[in-house]
Amino acid sequence: MKGLKIGHYTDLSVYTGSTVFLFERKNRAIASVRGGAPGSRELNALSPGQLVENIDALVFSGGSSFGIDSMSGAVEYLRQKGVGYKTKAANIPIVAGAVIYDLEVGKNAAPHSEWVYTACENATEKPKEGTVGAGTGASVGKSSGIRFAMKSGFGWGKSPQHRDGIHTFIVTNALGDIYDPRNGQLLAGRRNKSGEIEGFLKNIQNDTGFTSYYNTTLTLVVLDYFFSREDLLMLSHVVHSALSTCIRPYATLFDGDTIFMVSMGDRRPNYLSILQGLYESVAEAVIHSILFAEGLPMLPSRSDIIK
């Protein structure tokens, strides 16, 4: 999409990373949180009614709350470029972000500011998908703990009827399982002791292995249409609904699911077609985050299990 660049930094030695989104056009942005375990930066600034509507960068990071400090790398990158909200003293970059919990996947490591700065330098209009960036340590199906989980990652989805108008980017890191909403197929989720994909809903009454393993699915929806921040906040409810058709269960006490919505365009769209486009792009992004993920030691991907 014109005016949006995405950069990743991936460290496969510690199984974590960062993803940055750089917005080069004027926009309006909001954030919406569901679930009980979020970790974030500057979310209050993205509420309707606040002074600044525009966002200059958004960062998704691994490392749980330890990864929040890494987002200063985007602030420094934009400061050097002179990008930000204009004041008499300086242009102040508006950078928001959110983190996923992936500390039990690798070596309890967290991204730092140099990673995010490098991701900004390498940002492109066509980012890689799968086990990259903030999706490096992502996993799903953790109702019995990380030992029975599966690998997920970073996904990018578009709507067939809005190819250049609606883009969804996601890091799927869920307690629940992942389904294809088009046919109901279980794509990834909790594995049984034989290593087969069994899912959360099967024999859950007999499952005594549950741990409060923290999770967060991070989603960014970018619209090349005009919507006010109030409009975007209402549309975020639709995105949560779309995610719940793919992730089951969704937005639990142990998830910190956070959605960012950004409107960068001037066109006034057909509202009902936008609703359809949101469901389409969200589903594709979630599915890509599973199908393109590459497994890690002790954390297999779908392609490792189903050849």
Automatic annotation (TrEMBL):
<comment type="similarity">
    <text>Belongs to the peptidase S58 family.</text>
</comment>
<dbReference type="GO" id="GO:0004177">
    <property type="term" value="F:aminopeptidase activity"/>
</dbReference>
<dbReference type="Pfam" id="PF03576">
    <property type="entry name" value="Peptidase_S58"/>
</dbReference>
<keyword id="KW-0645">Protease</keyword>
<dbReference type="InterPro" id="IPR005321">
    <property type="entry name" value="Peptidase_S58_DmpA"/>
</dbReference>
<keyword id="KW-0031">Aminopeptidase</keyword>
<protein>
    <submittedName>
        <fullName>Putative aminopeptidase</fullName>
        <ecNumber>3.4.11.-</ecNumber>
    </submittedName>
</protein>
<keyword id="KW-0378">Hydrolase</keyword>
<dbReference type="InterPro" id="IPR016117">
    <property type="entry name" value="ArgJ-like_dom_sf"/>
</dbReference>
